[in-house]
Every structure is written in C-alpha cells, then in structure tokens.
Amino acid sequence: MKTLALETSAKSVSVAVTEDGKVLASSYQNIGLTHSVTLMPLLDGMLQNAGLTLKDMDLLAVAAGPGSFTGLRIGVSALKGLAWAEDKPCCGVSTLEAMAQNGRLFTGTVVCAMDARRSQVYNALFRCENGQLTRLCPDRAIGLEELAEELRKDEGPKLALGDGGRLCCDYLNSHGIACRLAPENGLYQSAVGVALAAEDMARRGETVSGRDLVPTYLRLSQAERERLAKGLKITVE
Fold it and tell me: Beta partners for 132?
C-alpha cells in the first residue's frame, strides 16, 4: 500500500510517500515561506524525482491537527483537492500521533507536545515498547501543572517530542519528574510520521472520503475567543 502524506501543522512543511512502513520518498522545507507557496511545488518535485504519480497512491493522508489554524487549513484543503481528483481514500492523522512515530525506538512514555501558549500544550501520551506505540490518552489542550501531576504517577522513562517538548521537559524536570528531550533531528513532526500513522489507521479501517476530511483544532481560534468574550456569536448568520 503506497501512502502519500502532507504535513503543514507548524512552521515547517513536508511531504512523503511510504509503502508498508518503508519510506520511498520525502521532502522537507523550513525556510520561512508560507505553506501556500511551498507545499505544491514541494509535492510535485518529490513525485517527479521519485517517478511516482498521484494515480500510484492507494491512500492519501494529512496532519489534521492540532496545530496552526492556517497551516492545517492549507494542508487539509490541498489533500481534499487531491483526493477528489482521483477518488482516493484519506486519513486525517493526529499531528501528535504522527509526532509519536519519532519515538518508536524509545522504551517508555512518549510525551508529545505542541506549544499552545498561555502555559498550555496540545498533548498526547503514548507508551512505546518493542517499537509499538499504544495511545494512553486522547489529544487535548492541557496545562503544564496538570500534565506534571499526571506524569508524576509514571515511574518509567519519559521522552518529550514536539515544539512544546522543551517546555514540557524543563517544567517536568524542575518539578522532580525525570524527562529526556528528543534530539533535534527527531524532535518535530513530519510527513513521514503522518504516512506511517495513516498506514495503521487504514489497517483499522479508519479512512474517510475527501469530502469528509476536516481539520481538528482542539480549541477555538483567537478571533473566535474574542467574539465570544464580546458576547457575539462565533459565526455570522
């Protein structure tokens, strides 16, 4: 099964193709340009260099959230267009679950975290043993204090991943909870992780059509929060 994946949830942008756990091609950029400028040229270049086309793909996948509101919209919209063009099944992959793929060689608790500001992180916990990941909680927005209290009960090794990984690692260690930070080259989510997580989802029958693919934000945007604070509706009728 060939899987094409897009990752646009944060500052970097990446694309990848895997086949049954093997990485066939991947491309990554983190040069400050917007994803709307870089994503499609990056995808076209990777496919051409690998001698692949969209028709060769059995599954399409994208990081569906949490993450940057704008980045997620760009990635999900792009994948919806690709899926509709070829009528391909899709997976909207948790950004945190894709990130956790980087921790498959670790034994212990993988703490995936994206900085959500206001002393919160978007977080999910996974147990990793013998290269297999087991989800311990749903994706959530959680305060560092609450996360620390939860992890205090876990006496095993811990590895922090993501752009909120250093924040979590520093907080946990300062409160007597031992935690390691993943190395820089394995710290952040990528399209390879999205593709690998999507392969697992497809085996469980968790695919959707391009029409039904939607982003997952976990909490309201700043604009929506400001409207609610003023007593206004989130959507304008």
Answer: 129
